[in-house]
Fold these 4 entries.
Entry 1:
Amino acid sequence: EPAGARPDAPRTPVLGPARPHEVGELRLATLPNLLSVLRLLLVGPSIVALQRQADWGTLPVLALVVVALGSDAVDGLLARGRGAVTSAGRMLDPLADKVYLGGVLLFLAVERGFPLVLVGAVLARDVLLVAGGALIARRYGVVFTPSLAGKISTLLLSLLIVAWVLRADPDLPELARAARAAAPWLVAGSLAAVLVSLGGYATTGVRFVSRARRADRARADSGTAVAPPGKGAAG
């Protein structure tokens, strides 16, 4: 349990890129969280569908991919609209995004010439975020909410996946041409957003740990309870 936390305090405060705030107890069985779980479960079927695109046709494959990608927006809207934002959801939703996007991008890189530089940047960022976030969560009991740049990168990567599915379809030549024309711009935008989001998360994490260590030293020097950053009212 983080130093300075009260027994009756919310179990998992959430640190956003801008300022920290607290949410209630962990609850997994909510509709938005179940949609995140569904997104995780659709990784395998989506990859199989992409492998069989020539046999099944583009539209059924695209529909499955769009449903999986679109569930990200739907679960967020439901969580906010129904007042069902939970600590579990704030961890599960971005994890589902990372696993789904990472799995599909790896397949496209291996089988369809998707840019390896972009895939490497996405995977490196996500591994660093998950590892660093897990360490901070274990030590201080806080998790990071997605930044604006992170959300933009997810949107651009989703659009890029759709474009990559369409770009080689002989049955939809006009859409294929549009997808091929848009792909380089989406690649550049996605890479920029991934790098910006990584820098933002790293800066936020370093600042948080620095503040937490100062709080630890102040508590040790004074012998009184000093709440770590992320506890109590945001400043």
Entry 2:
Amino acid sequence: MSLLARGPAEAAWTERRFGQGPEISESHLPLMTDPTTIVVVDDNRVVREGIASLLDGQPDVQVVATCADGAAALEVIERTRPKIVLADATPPGKRGVVLARELCKRGLAVKVITTGLSDEPGEVTEAVEAGASGYVVKEATADDLLGVVRAVARGEAPVSPRIAATLFSRLAELAATQRAREISGKVKLTPREIQVLSLVADRLTNKQIAARLYVETQTVKNHVHNILEKLNLRHRYQAVQYAQEIGLLRRRPLG
């Protein structure tokens, strides 16, 4: 059952404004006692109004506005200051990702939940790195969506096991990259030594490297010796592997 598998709208809560500008709907009902206020952003009117109807039928949620356009959404968010923005993050507009970045840039204390077509790693990490607090696939059930909204409102960051695995993988990758940068900053190889090491990675002999660089073979041997001394290694291919691990060289097979 998808997010739109819901009956007709349960409350006539909006005043619609149509014109040359983007379509916007804003609530004019009195707010409940400390509800979770939400702005829904999606360029598909059926999706937008379906989600708004679902959310607005909950006793602890108040949809204060719906918008079809990201720029209009920013204006509405600035004015209404909702607790949560639920925004579409699918291409080509990726409104949720753009809004998350912009809200972070403006320092607005608004949490963003993005909706996407899948929980593929690229989509999820892009949303999280932009500042999103939650991510929901559009094929999620109504209960799933409500669960994410309530969890984000409590200050949690709910994710499915697959999304959690994706995020941990990304964090590990970032940590490894940071470590590589720190290590490479301490390894003071000269540009020429890195060039020689790159040619070693291509399985060239000292003589072939000398011919490629228009230098004497002994000069190449001296470079290789210096590289091994600096890295505290004994073999040239150990040096290649290490340089690849810390990001000095692009990874490629030695065979």
Entry 3:
Amino acid sequence: MEQRKEVSVSGVSYAVKRLLGKGKGGYSYLVTDGAGEYVLKQIHHEPCGYYQFGDKMAAELNDYRRLSETGIRMPRLLAADVEAEHILKEYIAGDTILDYVRRDRMRPEFLEQVREMCRLLYPAGLNIDYFPTNFVVREGLLYYIDYECNGYQEQWDFEHWGIAYWSMTPEMAEYLREHPQGGGPPSPKSCLADSPVMCYNKLDILYIRRRFPCRYARSPSASPGTAGRWISSPSAGALWRRKSLPMARPCGPCGSRTGTESRWTW
């Protein structure tokens, strides 16, 4: 989309400072009215091979309403021009979680904060887009800067999908190779596992150990290839626990019922 110098929302003009990014639903620009900075989202209608849209503008406004009711931190909706398909929202200045992962600066409190979001979202029957470009840290607080949300499905929740991109996992390394300048989330794949035991929702304990100054211990009852769990030591703050359970249903999109399902829980 061609860079604009000026845009309007409901008759009010804003100067465009720069393009912030493009998602599957629209382009986001940093704009100003001379008094402050804002984000203007221009809805686009470019095809997306893995996501079906209806009325994008109506969906955006409805998603904002639903997320507002949960109480998660996100930018305020300031204005909406339905005819022009423009949305003006609060600008949250800061680095994205993707920036932190790239620089190897990921911090445990960011995971704790997304956990708090999940505690509000899951009971409401909602998932958000957990890809790290959608989260910005401002003054130590995590914000979800998109408005997209969908009905809850376990295979797309944070523990089964999003967490695979919140540290330098093989999935994230592959994404960065394919998108050196960043961009939207990767297209869903049939299976991200190295083996049927860790199907689609895998995040090895080693990745967490490399990222955080914590020590982890394996339950004495667990041995390689058998059911068991990894638990954090008392000094680690009980951040994560992995349970390997018999699979009672297909694991994510791949449909495999082989082996065990490995899940991360808090």
Entry 4:
Amino acid sequence: MSCANETAHRKIFFCSVIASGTNAGGADYPEEIPFVSTPVEVIDKMLELAEVKSGDVLYDFGSGDGRIVIRPAQKYGIRAVGIEMDRLLLDQARRDAKNSSSPAAVSSPTTSASKGGNGSNG
């Protein structure tokens, strides 16, 4: 059953993983994968390929410094959630999300989400 006035909400998932046995310094556990930042141009292309639009929700597992979460929240005004285990990267992502005034949220699997900016859920 479909309603003409019904708004479709899509959920988009990104998982950032680079296989390596080295410690990136600052990781909570030596076996963790090192963080490698994604250039904004690459993020924009990923979002274009995913056909992100208003009303979508984006989740990024292994969100690092939060740039893949913050960029679509800024650019499209969507709700974006990042999940990161490295406490140093998590702290940086939370600061950046707050400073961006975007509806991005960054959380650790062991803590509740902290909404950046105006606290909006998108």
